[in-house]
Amino acid sequence: MSKQWQAFYQTEAKCYNAQRYHSWYGALFARLHHNFLREVMSGCAKDASILDLACGTGHNLAVLLDYGRLVVACDLTSAMVQEAIKQYKGEKLVYTLGNALQLPFPDNTFDVVASSRFLHLFPESQQQLCVREMNRILKPGGLLIVDFYNRYQWLFLSPFIALYRAIKCKRPTEDTLNTIFKVKRWMAKQDLTMKRAIGVGSYFLILARFLPDDSVFRLGRLFGRPPFRILSEQFIVVAQKRL
Questions:
Q1: Opening angle at CA 104, ends 4 and 94, nearest 5
Q2: How far is the C-alpha of 50 from the C-alpha of 143, rounded, in Å?
Q3: CA atoms of 228 and 215, how far apart (whole Å)
Q4: Which residue, 99, 102, 176, is CA-closest to 133?
Q5: Whether the predicted pLDDT of 164 surpasses 90
Q6: How far apart are CA 146 and CA 160, in angstroms?
């Protein structure tokens, strides 16, 4: 599975940002995600060590570099890392290659481990293995910040999403869908306590396309929390490793 995705993203690297974040909805999603990520990271200690796992072309780095004393950006694919290097450099930023199922770091290394738009690629059994490995390298009391595709939105919109993907000739998707309650249960078995779950984005926002961008952004924030969170595209889980 890792070799399959490594080969895919090796060829996808140069167009990755444009395909995901340069459309109207892509830019809105990025703005909402960064806003919530800053909200979560605002309580981070100034001397924190941070891992951006599956850093890709650096979507999370746009935020994480404003926090902590050290940010390590790790990805399986060298081409993705090279694209990130073009955008983000600094004394406290270190790049490395690594497999999320067998990370090249000792136990209890980082205060924060963050990962975005990654776990949905894997079946639930492998998601749990990835989270177990992230938990291993977290310090006791450290924060895990990861996101999942929300099953409920896809259930509501699956016919329209399938039609859109067919029209746009997009590749077949086998993304793993989750619910907050299911993730909370299996994280608890790994000694992780879920602190928050924040919804990010929603295809329902396309109905507000005619409004000014700032107005749509404010509407988008409503999908971060109940009751509208159930209709979000993804949800960010903030979990803490037990002491």
A1: 95
A2: 9
A3: 17
A4: 102
A5: no
A6: 27
Asked if 71 and 65 touch (Cβ cutoff 8 Å), the reply is yes
For tokens 């979560």, the residue is 40
- pLDDT tens for residues 1-12? 556 666 666 777
User: How far is 217 from 5, CA to CA, in rounded Å?
Assistant: 32
- Tokens linked to 71: 């940010």
Query: What is the reported pLDDT for 229?
Result: 96
Cα Rg of the chain, angstroms: 17
Q: Worst-scoring range by mean pLDDT, 76-80, 157-161, 162-166, 168-172?
A: 168-172
- Residue 152: exposure state from Cβ atoms within 10 A (0-12, 13-18, ≥19): middle
Cα gap 229→226, rounded to integer Å: 5
Q: Provide the 10 A C-beta neighbour count for residue 103.
A: 20
- Total Cβ atoms within 10 A of residue 33: 25
- What long-range pairs does 89-94 form, CB within 8 A, spacing at least 24? 90/65, 92/65, 92/68, 93/61, 93/65, 94/70
Q: Residue 28 corresponds to which tokens in the numbers above? A: 């809105």
Q: What sign does the dihedral 104-71-143-150 (CA atoms) show?
A: negative
Residue 219's contacts (CB-CB under 8 Å, 6 or more residues apart) are 205, 208, 211
66-115 pLDDT, tens digit per residue, is 999 999 999 999 999 999 999 999 999 999 999 999 999 999 999 999 99
pLDDT value of position 14: 81
Here the tokens at position 96 are 């490395």
